[in-house]
């Protein structure tokens, strides 16, 4: 078994009596396991036996195999017998499916042996690629990739893409796969560094020539790319090959080197490594393997092999090694380079090196990572990358897009490209992120432009550099962005004149900073102002704000934002959170394009300006913890574009108006810890709300609405436990009648015209062809016995449990469901060739008072199969348009398990509820029972 594991090629000779040897079968099972897991080459030889007999265990071969299995089964030697039998059959089937040699008695065995030996020599005569001295973490990733390649199971041509940032190990893994499985193919070729070679004068055709030489062992001179495509197709379309295309960065490269799938023979595999996800979009590849950074254990081992020549750090270097590993962020390239750089150095030297790395990244790592930056399409994408690296990490993606768009940098497409190129990530909270080494790479690109003179750089982010520029007032028009964040204990004050020459300043982020002087010196081109701890009570009038896209003044001292209202056409984001002195909001009519209003924790804010209703484009309003805010202006409910409303912690707000349903786009409503005690009904009528958190109810609306509805119910209604989900609301046609008993049936014929009008109101074409006595006998039976009796007298079928009543031809096409109490559970029957037109609900009370329509509170339709709830309150039940009735009916399908619940006010006790499903065509006699 050890010899099998250590072999590159396994030759299996299948003879007629092969399957009579348990040892042969066990070896076969081991060989096929090695083939699946480590890519060992299998070369079957069928010696005087047909491959199909081995594959399917038929003929003489199958007979000897079955005899052997019966023998060991009788002896009880190997148990479980069926497990062994299955494993051996599987191994025989897999081995016999591999192309090999068929040697018959009629053939000269010397020739056969010669062919086999030549084939083995050809397979062995392939130089493996160097992977790494210490391939830490390689094996597990290779196994995952081999599984995706599906070598044995699929005979299609399959393209697999490997995607990830530079230095993450794509090429290393591709080489390991090439070495491990390459011998399973008729030919193989590994094209390294395609991006670099492609840019050379003859690089493009040289890559095509290399493919031909590697696979066909031919030296072919190719004149141009197009003729090369024809030659590749002609020479390779009958060969099963493995082709690795390393570092692809354009579609032209992919098209020239592998063309379409028809270029290659069945069972071929192509592996593409790239930093650009766009290369693999559409149907260009079949599967994508996203490379992940090393975990902590792998990182420690790889770094230690390079820094200490052993698998773990020296005792004195354990803690500082963790710092280096954290800085490397699981990037194999950085772990290897930094480990080698720090090898055989003292702890003092390590500390100095780490201090330097914070300002100046390692050159080897920098060059490798910078390839992705250099490959960006245009200056706008590069500018966006540098802005994110210096200022926007951790910020909301949509906010950053707004700011970038204000800078005419086309943020939406720019960020998408950066994500595709694995330069930027967007987390599950929609925040921008970036690998620390990529961040440092971007900042180093800026520093390199003016290494000795900070004011000559386009962006300043290092506190010392910014302090020097502001203190010495050496700013220049080269500076486009600046950030200075100081603690309160180290707060600084600067003259506004320091900004006088920064004519192109777009982005300004301050914290723990005061400015003294004329604010007119701040740039007219400023798009983003983030000033944590803004010291003034209002924004100065001379400060040029008309081009601002985002104003973020958290923890500020502002009382009012402006003394004199300014019209800011371009302002999209206003954040005054934790401004504990803010007493009033601005006049929102001067901010026509505002999309995001954040006023979290403004405890002195008592009211919101009614002009908030003028914010036609606002999508988020966050008023969390505004504890003095008493109510919302009614105009806020006019906001058609608002998606998120947050009121949590607004302790004095005790009501949300029913107008809330006018907010057509509202998807998220959060109002915890308020004085609101009851969820307004308009919340459930809303067609847009997807997430809600208020009055102890929290979660996705379809999960929360049922418990909200249950909280409205009176316990006297004797309803079942809260149901599970809800998805929307529709209409239901009820008919509320006075107390009905058998003695009073003749006195309520006056309700027939009302019944007809309600049906017609819901678009139903009902023709009443029966007399009043017959319909009343059916409609107003008060229990299952009366229903059964009525059914018998009218020649109808009934299930005997008050469940389903099916009527004959002389009656309208109704299916009837009856139950005690205020709810009816039923399953919608499948009525062949007939359409459900409407639903009617009849309720019976045991009280002597009339159950008038003003006593009805609401009616619910629950669809357990579709996990939906449909709700209508009393005031909407008699004013349906045709489409409302159709919408209810169209949502119900045969086989759906339904429940209809009626709820009344004034403590009415419902004795019986009957539901009628009304169809548009006659139902044949004796349909039979469909429900359980």
TrEMBL record:
GO molecular function, one term: ADP binding
Record organism: Trifolium subterraneum
Positions of the TIR domain: 1-124
Transmembrane segments: none
Keyword Plastid: no
Matches recorded under Pfam families: NB-ARC, TIR, WHD_ROQ1
Name this polypeptide is given: TIR domain-containing protein
PANTHER family membership: DISEASE RESISTANCE PROTEIN (TIR-NBS-LRR CLASS) FAMILY (PTHR11017:SF271), LEUCINE-RICH REPEAT-CONTAINING PROTEIN (PTHR11017)
UniProt KW keywords: Leucine-rich repeat, Plant defense, Repeat
GO biological process, one term: defense response
This protein's record includes keyword S-adenosyl-L-methionine: no
């Amino acid at each position: 078994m050890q010899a099998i594991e250590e072999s590159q090629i396994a030759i299996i000779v299948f003879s007629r009596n092969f399957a009579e040897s348990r040892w042969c079968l066990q070896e076969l099972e081991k060989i096929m396991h090695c083939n699946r897991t480590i890519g060992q080459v299998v070369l079957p030889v069928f010696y005087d036996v047909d491959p199909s007999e081995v594959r399917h265990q038929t003929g003489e071969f199958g007979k000897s195999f079955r005899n052997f299995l019966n023998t060991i089964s009788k002896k009880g030697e190997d148990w479980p017998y069926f497990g062994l039998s299955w494993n051996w059959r599987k191994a025989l089937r897999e081995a016999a499916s591999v192309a090999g040699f068929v040697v018959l008695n009629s053939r000269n065995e010397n020739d056969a042996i010669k062919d086999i030996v030549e084939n083995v020599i050809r397979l062995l005569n392939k130089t493996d690629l160097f992977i790494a001295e210490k391939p830490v973490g390689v094996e597990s990733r290779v196994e995952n990739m081999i599984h995706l390649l599906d070598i044995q199971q699929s005979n299609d041509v399959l393209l697999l893409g490997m995607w990830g940032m530079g230095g993450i190990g794509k090429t290393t893994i591709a080489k390991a796969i090439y070495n491990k499985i390459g011998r399973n193919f008729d030919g193989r070729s590994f094209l390294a560094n395609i991006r670099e070679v492609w840019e050379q004068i003859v690089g493009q055709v040289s890559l095509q020539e290399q493919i031909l030489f590697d696979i066909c062992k031919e030296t072919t001179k190719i004149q141009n790319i197009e003729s090369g495509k024809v030659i590749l197709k002609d020479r390779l379309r009958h060969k099963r090959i493995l082709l690795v295309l390393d570092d692809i960065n354009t579609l032209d490269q992919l098209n020239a080197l592998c063309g379409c799938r028809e270029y290659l023979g069945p069972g071929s595999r192509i592996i593409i490594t790239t930093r650009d996800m766009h290369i693999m979009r559409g149907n260009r590849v079949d599967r994508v393997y996203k490379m992940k950074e090393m975990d902590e254990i792998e990182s420690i081992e790889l770094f230690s092999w390079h820094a200490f020549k052993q698998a773990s750090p020296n005792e004195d270097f354990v803690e500082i090694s963790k710092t280096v590993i954290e800085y490397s962020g699981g990037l194999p390239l950085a772990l290897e380079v930094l480990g080698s750089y720090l090898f055989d150095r003292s702890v003092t030297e390590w500390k100095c090196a780490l201090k330097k790395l914070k300002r100046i990244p390692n050159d080897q790592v920098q060059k490798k990572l910078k390839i992705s930056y250099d490959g960006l399409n245009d200056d706008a994408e590069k500018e966006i990358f540098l802005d994110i690296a210096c200022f926007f990490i951790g910020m909301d993606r949509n906010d950053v897009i707004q700011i970038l768009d204000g800078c005419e940098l086309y943020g939406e497409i720019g960020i998408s490209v950066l994500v595709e190129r694995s330069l930027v990530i967007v987390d599950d909270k929609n925040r921008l992120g970036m690998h620390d080494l990529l961040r440092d790479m971007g900042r180093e690109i800026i520093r390199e432009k003016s290494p000795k003179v900070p004011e000559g750089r386009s962006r300043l982010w290092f506190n010392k550099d910014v302090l020097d520029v502001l203190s010495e007032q050496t700013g220049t028009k080269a500076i486009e962005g600046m950030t200075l964040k100081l603690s309160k204990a180290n707060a600084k004050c600067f003259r506004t004149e320091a900004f006088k020459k920064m004519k192109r300043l777009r982005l300004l982020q301050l914290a723990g900073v005061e400015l003294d002087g004329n604010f007119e010196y701040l740039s007219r081109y400023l798009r983003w102002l983030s000033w944590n701890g803004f010291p003034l009570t209002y924004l100065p009038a001379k400060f040029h704000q008309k081009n601002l896209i985002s104003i973020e003044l958290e923890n500020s001292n502002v009382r009012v934002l402006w003394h004199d209202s300014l019209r800011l056409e371009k302002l999209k984001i206003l954040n005054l959170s934790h401004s504990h002195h803010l007493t009033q909001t601005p006049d929102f009519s001067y901010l026509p394009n505002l999309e995001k209003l954040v006023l979290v924790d403004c405890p002195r804010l008592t009211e919101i300006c009614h002009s908030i209703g003028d914010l036609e484009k606002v999508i988020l309003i966050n008023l969390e913890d505004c504890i003095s805010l008493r109510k919302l202006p009614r105009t806020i409910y006019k906001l058609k574009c608002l998606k998120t409303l947050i009121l949590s912690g607004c302790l004095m707000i005790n009501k949300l108006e029913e107008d809330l349903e006018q907010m057509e786009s509202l998807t998220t409503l959060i109002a915890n810890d308020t004085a609101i005690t009851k969820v307004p009904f308009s919340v459930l009528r809303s067609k847009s709300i997807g997430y809600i958190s208020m009055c102890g109810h929290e979660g996705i609306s379809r999960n929360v609405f049922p418990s909200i509805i249950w909280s409205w119910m009176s316990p006297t209604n004797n309803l079942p436990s809260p149901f599970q989900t809800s998805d929307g609301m529709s209409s239901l046609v009820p008919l509320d009648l006075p107390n009905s008993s058998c003695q009073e049936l003749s006195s309520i014929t006056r309700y027939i015209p009302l019944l007809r009008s309600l049906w017609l109101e819901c678009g139903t074409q009902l023709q009443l062809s029966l007399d009043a006595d017959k319909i009343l006998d059916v409609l107003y039976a008060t229990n299952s016995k009366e229903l059964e009796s009525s059914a018998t007298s009218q020649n109808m079928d009934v299930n005997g449990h008050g469940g389903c009543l099916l009527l004959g031809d002389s009656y309208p096409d109704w299916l009837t469901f009856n139950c005690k109490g205020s709810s009816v559970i039923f399953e919608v029957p499948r009525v062949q060739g007939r359409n459900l037109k409407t639903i009617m609900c009849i309720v019976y009370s045991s009280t002597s008072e009339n159950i008038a329509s003003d006593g009805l509170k609401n009616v619910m339709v629950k669809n357990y199969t579709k996990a939906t709830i449909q709700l209508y309150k009393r005031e909407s039940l008699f004013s349906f348009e045709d489409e409302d009735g159709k919408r209810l009916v169209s949502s119900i399908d045969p086989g759906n398990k339904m429940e209809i619940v009626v709820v009344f006010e004034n403590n009415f006790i419902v004795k019986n509820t009957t539901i009628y499903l009304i169809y548009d065509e006659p139902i044949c006699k004796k349909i039979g029972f469909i429900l359980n």
